Amino acid sequence: MKLISEDALGIITMWMEARGEPHEGRVAVGEVIRNRMKKKYSSDGTVAGTVALRYQFSGWNDDYGNNQQLIASLKIDDADAIVQDCIAAWKESETSDLTGGALFYVNLSIVQPGWAKKCKAVTKIGNHTFFVPL
């Protein structure tokens, strides 16, 4: 028995990564998680084995003091409007393709990661730019 469902992990990750983004931005983050799962890119094919892999999704990286973010996510109320939108966005991301199969995203106004040079930007939604490998 899993204590936290795969869907709950996806929704929590989406909340940590994209709660300040528009609905489409949340869907797009869900797509990246699902695309990585399908391709087993930095993933074992499960949500848990995708989002909790070190340095892949910043909400799970304790190196940056994000445990506070994780703790905050455990206190959120599922009646909260942003949480409700994350739930809807997670479901929508199962069949959508707003990102053209993106495996990565980043807020370029915050960080310019070296990996982005080895990728092609395919779209920008909200503050995140989405990428596919070259």
UniProtKB/TrEMBL annotation:
InterPro entries the UniProt entry points to: Cell_wall_hydrolase_SleB, SleB_dom1
Source organism, top-level taxon: Bacteria
Coiled coil: none
GO MF annotations, alphabetized: hydrolase activity
Cell wall hydrolase SleB domain: residues covered: 20-131
The name this protein goes by in its record: Cell wall hydrolase SleB domain-containing protein
Organism placement in taxonomy: Bacteria, Candidatus Amesiibacteriota
